From TrEMBL:
<feature type="domain" description="Glycine-rich">
    <location>
        <begin position="65"/>
        <end position="291"/>
    </location>
</feature>
<dbReference type="Pfam" id="PF21722">
    <property type="entry name" value="Gly_rich_2"/>
</dbReference>
<feature type="region of interest" description="Disordered">
    <location>
        <begin position="166"/>
        <end position="194"/>
    </location>
</feature>
<dbReference type="InterPro" id="IPR049304">
    <property type="entry name" value="Gly_rich_dom"/>
</dbReference>
<protein>
    <recommendedName>
        <fullName>Glycine-rich domain-containing protein</fullName>
    </recommendedName>
</protein>
<feature type="compositionally biased region" description="Polar residues">
    <location>
        <begin position="182"/>
        <end position="191"/>
    </location>
</feature>
<feature type="compositionally biased region" description="Gly residues">
    <location>
        <begin position="166"/>
        <end position="180"/>
    </location>
</feature>
Length: 385
């Protein structure tokens, strides 16, 4: 383009202008954003990196508007810890920890517009002082007309009887609870795969820990509660700990700790001190988590016949030029014609294309931050803007 020089202004330049003009002429029509992909109640959700994370902590329902595949985590309620028992001769047996609820992590095909009900299992109540075992946790379920997915609750921990510590409850997934100490010489044992820990015997023996869930990806959920400590008068021994921070610790001269809600952990077994026996802690309720991946818009289509609408960009304004220093450019010309004429046909005079980047919405047309001096001796022009 001999005899024509352009110097971009700070708000834009010819290359940018021509690129935007091309974009306008071959406007990309993106695939429409999907409508909100589910409806229902009783849940909270977040959206990040094309993934919906939908959490049910209470009963509810959900309906997906399109066929899809979901990933889910479901946990049953944890069992309650057993109560400590008093030995008539002094001391006593501590309660066993409650078993963690069953935890399942898998995938499921979903049919559009199908109602899915969510039932969250409650944790079991801890055993009452000197009288009862911990209650079992309840089942959590995902239920539709086409399928049912259920996670069993954990079993309650056994109560201490006389000097014997109670056994830990089994986990909902079949992990075994630890054994309570039955004699002064045999310590209690820990649970396995979410099972509750056994309670300590009265003769200065510690309670044992509950077990974490063996599935690493869901190890936050379904841990067993710790067994209570068996103390003989003023002697101190340790209580068992829950399998993770969300399961209940066993009592130590106090009540067994309750598990955190919505993690499916077992409650801690009750402790014993002298002639005082304590109740077990409650198991934690279950939960359901659903993951739904929504892909990005693939393969946008082109519309070469699109009539551009006003917008920020040289290719998107079909109005009159703001300043024309020569009559050789018709005011009614489109931008396409102006750019073509400026680049190939202008023999002299000056045309100003100004302030594209300001994004103004007026009756004026701002055609780009460049000043063109066509014709004559080539020379760079000062920055107009």
């Amino acid at each position: 383009m001999s005899g024509l020089n352009f110097r971009p202004g700070k708000k834009g330049g010819l290359r940018k202008a021509l690129n935007k003009l091309f974009y306008c002429q071959t406007r990309i029509i993106p695939t429409p954003e999907p409508k909100f992909p589910f409806t229902g109640s009783g849940f909270t959700y977040t959206f990040s990196e094309n993934m919906y994370t939908i959490v049910f902590k209470n009963n509810g329902n959900i309906t997906f508007t399109n066929d899809c595949i979901i990933e889910y985590i479901i946990a049953g309620g944890g069992g309650g810890g057993g109560a400590a028992g008093t030995n008539p001769g002094g001391g006593g047996g501590a309660g066993g920890g409650g078993g963690g609820g069953e935890v399942i992590n898998s995938f499921q095909n979903i049919t559009n517009n199908q109602l899915i009900n969510i039932v969250i299992g409650n944790g079991g109540t801890g055993g009452v002082s000197n009288t009862s075992n911990g209650q079992n946790g309840q089942q959590t379920a995902i239920i539709s007309a086409l399928f049912t997915i259920a996670a069993n609750g954990g079993l309650g921990g056994g109560r201490g009887i006389n000097a014997d510590g109670g056994n830990g409850g089994n986990s909902g997934s079949g992990g075994l609870g630890g054994n309570g100490s039955q004699t002064p010489n045999i310590p209690a044992t820990s649970g396995t795969n979410g099972g509750g820990g056994g309670g300590g015997g009265y003769f200065q023996l510690s309670g044992k820990n509950g077990a974490i869930n063996n599935q690493v990806s869901v190890s936050l959920y379904g841990a067993g509660g710790g067994g209570g400590a068996g103390n003989n008068f003023n002697a101190f021994v340790a209580n068992g700990l829950g399998g993770n921070i969300y399961a209940g610790n066993g009592g130590n001269q106090n009540i067994g700790a309750s598990a955190t809600s919505n993690y499916g952990g077992g409650g801690g077994g009750g402790g014993i001190f002298s002639f005082v026996n304590y109740s077990g802690g409650n198991g934690g309720s279950g939960l359901v988590i659903i993951y739904l991946f929504v892909p990005s818009n693939p393969n946008p289509s082109l519309d070469p016949n699109h009539n551009c609408i006003p917008c920020d960009g040289i290719g998107c304004i079909q109005e009159k030029a703001s300043q024309i220093k020569s009559g050789n450019i018709e005011p009614i010309q489109t931008q396409s014609a102006r750019i073509t004429q400026l680049a190939t046909q202008r023999l002299g005079g000056r045309t100003i294309f100004g302030d594209i980047g300001l994004g103004l919405r007026t009756n004026n047309t701002y055609l780009g931050g460049i000043e063109g001096q066509p014709g004559g001796s080539p020379r760079p022009l000062r920055n107009k803007f």
